[in-house]
Amino acid sequence: MRSIWKGAISFGLVTIPVKLYSATEQKDVTFHQVHREDGGRIKYKRVCSVDGEEVPYSDIAKGYELATGEMVVLTDEDFADLPLTTSRRIDVLQFTPADQIDPIYFAKSYYLEPDGQGAKPYVLLRDALERSGQVAVVKVALRQRESLAALRVRDGVFVLETMLWPDEIREADFGFLEEDVDVRPQELKMAESLIDTMVADFDPAEYKDAYREALQEVIEAKVAGKEVVAPEAPAEAGPAVDLMAALRASVEAAKRERQGPAAAAKSPGRAAKAKAAASGKATSDGADEEEKAPKKRKTRRSA
């Protein structure tokens, strides 16, 4: 990893020089836009909408469009004059329990490494913060943008989690929140039972990006000149007609999955019922029984 920023944690009168590194990386298969006929790369030119001329990158500035359609042009000098008191500091504002910060605020994660003679105060603050069970709420400026952030400890290293400002969080204003949706106690109990059945310790190594792996196989097959065979997509169950039946079937399926394939083989009848209920073909065995439709009689046509 390469450091992308150098500064210092400001904690009271204590200053801890640190280097900042990106803690995550987005792994994806990247593509270029190309000409379908010959594979040539598609290039784009920066052209001015006023005179139609191509503009060199050195002549490009940032513009803020007003409601009237007029443009306010800002140069690098305008940004350089803006006051950023935390331009090279991570200012500790307060300490707070981690569960008081909604994860929706978190934007990006960074590692902090002690720089120069900062190892001892770094370890001191790290150990004290870890023993307190708190996280530090800080303010930091990265790439000319000031942000709130949370400072926590992970595997012996400080992790800086940049946060969104409160006015950047959208309100969940949906119509169903005003509706009076009736949930029966037995349905709630069955849903809670399903949750209890699926409780497990989280191990991220158990999960993988199946789409990216399949896409990589397609590319490798193309390179090798082989025929590309699309993997068979799993069948998707339709919407459940009977919620209780679907929940009950889900609980049974989750239990069988926990017990292993041997348990599923012992009860094929239950597996069929669970599959039928999840696809909306089964009905609940509650107080209200579904009325059976009368069978149609076959009639013979006269010659």
Plain-language structure description:
α3 (185-197) runs parallel beside α5 (243-259) and α5 (243-259) packs across α7 (268-278). The termini are far apart. The strands form 2 sheets. A 7-stranded mixed beta barrel has the order 1-2-6-9-8-7-5. A two-stranded antiparallel sheet has the order 3-4. The relative contact order is 0.10. It has helices spanning 76-80, 119-132, 185-197, 210-224, 243-259, 261-266, 268-278; strands spanning 5-11, 14-22, 62-65, 71-74, 89-97, 106-114, 134-142, 145-154, 157-163. With 303 residues, the chain is of the alpha+beta class. It is built from 7 helices and 9 strands.
Helix content: 25-40%
Order of helices and strands: EEEEHEEHEEEHHHHH
Q: How many extended strands?
A: 9
Radius of gyration from CA coordinates: 30 Å
Largest sheet: 7 strands, mixed, barrel
Structural class: alpha+beta
- Helix count from the secondary structure assignment: 7
List keywords for this structure.
303 residues, single chain, disordered C terminus, alpha+beta, seven-stranded mixed β-barrel
Secondary-structure topology with pairs:
Blueprint: E1 5-11, E2 14-22, E3 62-65, E4 71-74, H1 76-80, E5 89-97, E6 106-114, H2 119-132, E7 134-142, E8 145-154, E9 157-163, H3 185-197, H4 210-224, H5 243-259, H6 261-266, H7 268-278
Parallel strand pairs: 1-5
Antiparallel strand pairs: 1-2, 2-6, 3-4, 5-7, 6-9, 7-8, 8-9
